[in-house]
Each structure stands twice: as structure tokens, then as C-alpha cells.
Amino acid sequence: MTKEMLNNFSGNLFWDTDPNDIDIEKHAKLIINRVLDYGMWEDWLFIRKYYGLEKIKNLALAIRSMERKSLAFISTMTQTPENEFRCYEQIQSKDTHWYF
């Protein structure tokens, strides 16, 4: 990822990776997943402008793991039912806490 691209993202998105090793095209699914789960509104606006909503939707459909709020957000933004996303089944199978 070029330094110019890096400046468009929040600093917390690539805490475990050297941002200079990330290719914005090759690693698009990773970038989209990080923005959906941990990004700020400005990060969303940047990827939406850069990739376009259709590409974001197609890549997000294949993401294995996503936060519930992220799934609800991308489902709403793309007008795609939540159960069409790959991560939906994984989210549904998580055990919830028991309240007595």
C-alpha cells in the first residue's frame, strides 16, 4: 500500500501488519473486513469511493467472520439480506450468554 493510501485509513486498522506490505487491490477483502469491523466513517467513505459498493458487496459476501453490527451495516448499505453473507451462519452458531 502506498503511503498516500495509508493516510486515508485510521491508524488502528492494520495493527498486526506492516501497512507497506498491503496491496490495496490484492488485499481488498482484508481491507474491507477491517474497515467494516474496526473502521471509522471516513474509512468507509474511502473504500466506498475507491472500490465501489458493488465490489464491496461481492467481497463482503465471502468474508468468513464479521461482527454482528458490521453485518447489519453492510446488509443495509447494499440492500442484501444478512443470510446471503457467508459469515451469517457463523454468527448464528455462536453461543449466547445465559441470563438467569
Present the secondary structure layout.
Blueprint: H1 3-6, H2 28-38, H3 41-51, H4 53-60, H5 68-78, H6 87-93
Q: How far apart, in Å, are the first and last alpha carbons?
A: 49 Å
Number of domains: 1
Query: What integer is the average pLDDT?
Result: 86
The low-confidence runs, each spanning 5 or more residues with pLDDT under 50, are none
Gyration radius (Cα, Å) is: 14 Å
Please, how many helices? 6
The SSE order reads HHHHHH
Beta-strand share of residues: under 5%
Instruction: Give the biggest beta sheet.
Output: none
Q: Which structural category do the helix and sheet elements fall into?
A: mainly alpha
Total beta strand runs: 0
- Overall shape: globular
The proportion of residues forming helix, as a percent range, comes to 40-55%
Task: Explain this structure.
The structure is a single chain. The model has no long low-confidence stretch (mean pLDDT 86). The chain is built from 6 helices and no strands. It has one domain. With 100 residues, the protein is mainly α.
